Each structure stands twice: as structure tokens, then as C-alpha cells.
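Long-time lurker, finally posting.

We've been working with Beta-galactosidase (Paraburkholderia terricola) and I want a structural starting point before designing mutants. I don't trust myself to interpret raw outputs, so I'm hoping someone here can both generate the C-alpha cells and explain anything notable. Sequence follows.
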Amino acid sequence: MQLGVCYYPEQWPRSMWADDAKRMVELGITHVRIAEFAWSRMEPRAGEFAWEWLDEAVATLADAGLKLVLGTPTASPPKWLMDAHPDVLPVRADGTRWNFGSRRHYDISSEVYRRECRRIVTAMAERYGRHPSIVAWQTDNELGCHDTVPSYSDAARTRFQAWLRQRYERIDALNDAWGNVFWSMEYPSFDAIGLPNLTPTDANPIHLLDFRRFMSDEVASFHREQIEVLREHAPAADLLHNFMGFFTTFDHYRFADDNALDVAAWDSYPIARTESIALPEEQKARYARTAHPDVSAFDHDRYRAIGRGRFWVMEQQAGPVNWAPWNPVPARGMVRLWAYEAFAHGAELVSYFRWRQCPYAQEQMHSGLNLPNNELSPGGLEVQQAAREIAQSPALTGLGAPARASVAVVFDYETQWMFEIQRHGKSFDYQTLVFDYYESLRELGLDVDIVSSKADLSSYRLVVVPSIAVIDAALVEQIERGGAHWVFGPRSGSKTTTFAIPSSLPPGALQRVLPMQVLEVETLRPTLAPAISIGDAQGVANHWREHVRANGETRIDAQFDDAWPAILSRGKVRYVAAWLSHALHRAVLQQAANEAGIETQQLADGLRIRRRGGLTFAFNFGAQPVRAPAPANATFVLGDALLKTGDVCAWQDA
Ligand code: GAL
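Top reply, 14 upvotes:
Generated this for you. Predicted structure of Beta-galactosidase:
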């Protein structure tokens, strides 16, 4: 359990640096991230490097005993570079270019920009790569943020054509796979293929999907070019990137493949995230100051998988931020709670954004651990408390890694892209569906691993697949081989990899283990809500429902009030033929978990628990005080069973 902070020495007079470093250490901070936006100061003019200030900043922080994370500055190319290469500005879907004057104003496919990035990263890595206090390097900053990926530039088009040529080899094969006979979309050659923007009506969904796959690969290859330089010059450092919450523009599992990352780091802004995702207004209101209890946990569990067990929070909300629709002050205790929550889910480091609120430029309304006048902010005081508690508790300092959970939830990036391309009804959002399942499991007191469908799932007792567009033979083999119980949600197996309906009808290859067919699907406006009950839980279908036929030995376990099957099963495999209201999801998952031999509990509203290394942590995100479900004779290593809003406790497992 280590605490860090993001710091921008270039934004403050040098006379403050030594005192900042000293106060960081006094606060209990061990890691500091710097430099990720400082290109204009590292290289004020083309080829003219000015390292002296950074040398001094690094030395000052290192001398104080801090470990450093150095960011490559490629998210903010300086003006001289943009003037010399205006084509580096990314192109939006409407064909216009973004302007200079903020950040992320570069086209990820630009060969010129990639060359410039390799140049600055090499210069930086040659200078600092073997510095003993620099323990990690971050590439760029939040790749894909601010909608700058995809770019619809000429560079992207040329590279997309090459990507397609490699994938399909022959243009006839592409025309067949894409179904281009439809509307006379056939192409005479790969060079003739454009980007799927500015079409009068929908572009071909497979054209859109392949473009998204290509862009995802572009993001990964952009990062990898920096990794190659860093592995050579900074062989001992951990290499990472800071990903975002609820962010699906590229496939993070593929991004992390092949030694491209040592740690998955991500940036956690729970209140702002709660405000900006598709949650019902009632929940946004309820959790306005604490954030939704699962919104950070969801990404902790996802990034733990992406980092193959190793993840950090690179930026943690420390108070009100500036970029959500509304930016309230967090309830007292939350800034401390979020650190423990991340640790309970397996984080090695929680690093707050930022050391001090900057009184000028874009983020002047964004809090930090210090106010602009250098007094500790309310968030800073909470971090001080957490740091003291951790330092005083051997049980917290020496926490082991989290064990593998008995429940896995499959999250699949391509499914997100496919269902975004073809929502069919405006309220269908795959990630929101996954989140609803995840929330249900967490309300049942379960620890969850979020995993790729390609991971080895053999050790899980329950695998929940809220949906997955393509079910391939390998996944069916995992079902046939393992002893797990499986729950599949609607739209599973509804597409092929080339974005067509499987010839055997959905759910495609799943029929091998669960004979059934989806005959028709419907999206539901809010006034269409077929009713259903499961055990004691009453509810409806929202957003999406299927009309399905059970074949062979498949059982119908529940029906809608108009007699269409809602839940089907055979053996250990279940299929849910609709997006069910929340209490019904919970009921289905509780049944499945209990059948799989997993004990569940019903946690109080707003309460969550998480186990790690022999401890159970409990967190209260709700408005009312609650009692944590600790045994009567539990030994607490943090707090006690009675939790006010924003409070946390931890006890030793018996
Ligand atoms: C992140 C970004 C930081 C800062 C922060 C403000 O998205 O990486 O540089 O802008 O948001 O919340």
C-alpha cells in the first residue's frame, strides 16, 4: 500500500521545489509522477534540448527520498512542432481539424508525429533511463482521451488500407466478407477504400468495425514504439500507461499483450465518472458526493486483469474536479476511502492528482492535495490520515496480493464496438449492461474478477457473460471442459467476426451446449416493459428483449407475462433473453451463484466489501450509517464495524 502524487515542477517557481518534496515525504507519499506535459520546456525549439531544469527537479525529488515516475510528453506537442507539421493535427469525423491550444492535438497515425515521438522519448530515456530513483515510466497520457482517436486523416486512411490488405489479402475476399454487394459498395482495390465517415446514411457496420479494430491497433502500436525505446534505455523500470475509467475506444487486453506493459495504471475520478456515465438520475442523485459504490471497483477489477495482476491508480480524485457536468465536493472521508478501496482490489500504489491546485490555465478549478496557497486541502488532510494509518499498521503495510475470485465477469471490447455501431435501440449500451451485472454481484457481497473471454476461465466456479457478440469455438470448449456455471445475457452469439448474423441464428455456437434460437429481437422504448417475476423478485425487461425458442433438452426457467421465455438453461449454462431490471439480474445471479456453491449475502444499501490478503474491507457509500458484516469476534485492523457515510473498516478473516 503506497501513496503517490502527480506533480508539475515546471508550473511552479524553483524556489518551491525542495519544500514541496519535503512536504510530500512528511505527508507519507513515496512516489511522484512528473513531466508528462512538459515538452515545450524540454525542447523549447526543434532539436534544442533544455534538460537542466528537469535534472534539478529529478534530483530535488530523488534527494528527498521519493521514487519517480517519469512521463513521456507526447500528449502535448509544442507549437513549433505543430507549425512545422500542421498535418499532425487530428481530423474529426466531420472532416475538420482540431486546433492547437490545449492537448492531445495529434494524429496517432501520423508517421511524422511517430518519428518526433521516438526522437523525444529517446532523448529523454538516454538521459534518465538508468537513474536509480526513476522506478517507472508512463507513456503519453490517457491515450484516446478527448475524442482525438479515431482520426479521419489521410495518414489514417493509408494505414487503414494497408491494415485491410494484410487482413483480407485479396479485394474479392474483403468484398465478400463485408457483403459489399449490398447497395453496390464493392471496391475494385484496397486503395479505393475510404474511411467510414461522411456517408449520407450508416456506413457498412463491418467497415465501421474494421476501422475500430484498426484504430485500436494504431493506439497499441503508437504506445509500443515508445516501449521499445524505453525497454532499451530504462531496462530496470516498470513501464506503464495511465488508462481511463469506463473507456473502450481500444482493446486494452490486446494493448497489454506481448510485454507492452509491466503495470496497468488508470486514472480514477469516481464522482465525475458517476456523473458522466449512463446511470439512472436517481442513482446519480443518491451518490452525488460519494460516487456510485461500484464505479471505481469495476475498473480496479478490469485493470487488475489487464495488468495481469499488477495495477496502480496513477491519478486519484482528491477533491472536486473541473470536467464533469457538475463537480461537487466529495463527502468527508471519500478521498481516504478511495485509497483503501483501490488497495482492497489489489492496487500497489494510489497516486493522487495533483500535489497543488494550479491557479491558472485550464485546470484552475481542479483541486489537489494542497490549495493554491500551499495549505493542505481537505483532501490532503484525508491523505495524511490514511498515510498515518497505513504506516502504523503492519497488517496494512504487508498486505498480500488478492486471491483469484470465484466469480468472473467477461468484458469484451469488440462487443462494445459492435453494439455501439448497431445499438438497434438508443438506450442499449453494452458496458452499462455489464456494469449492472457487476453491481448485482457486488451487492451480493462477492469478489469479482473481470476477464477477457480468451483468458483461462477453468478455475472459476461461476462465469458471467452479460453479453458477447461473437461466441467462438474456443469459448464453447471452455464451457464444455470446465466445471463452472455460466450465465449468458442477451445478444450473446448474435454476430460473426465479419458482423453478420450466424447462419444457425443467434446465439450461434452457444447452441452446441444450449440448444435454443433467437427468432426475433426488439428494443424497448420506456413505455414497453414486459413484466416477469423470478422467485420473490418482480420486474420487467428494459431496453432489449428477444423472442426465443427452446430446442432439445433446454428448459424454460422463467417466462414473461406474454408467455415468451425469459430464462433458459441446460445443465450449468443459463441464457437470459432480455435486459432485466436490476433486482431480477440480482435474483438470477444469486440463484446461479448458490447453485455453483458460492455463498452470497445481501449487503445494506451503499455498503460494499472486498477481500485481500487475509483481510476483509468494508466501505460505506450510502447516506445512512451501517454495520459492516464482520463476525462478532472479528479483529479489526482499521476502524470498527459501525460505518458512517464515507467510512471504511477492515478486519482479519478467521
Ligand atoms: C486526467 C488527466 C490529467 C488531468 C485530470 C483532471 O484525465 O490525465 O492530466 O487533466 O484528468 O481530472
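Before you design anything, note these points.
The two ends are 22 Å apart (CA to CA).
The pocket of beta-D-galactopyranose is lined by residues 141-142, 145, 267, 269, 315, 321, 323, 353, 363, 366 (CB under 6 Å).
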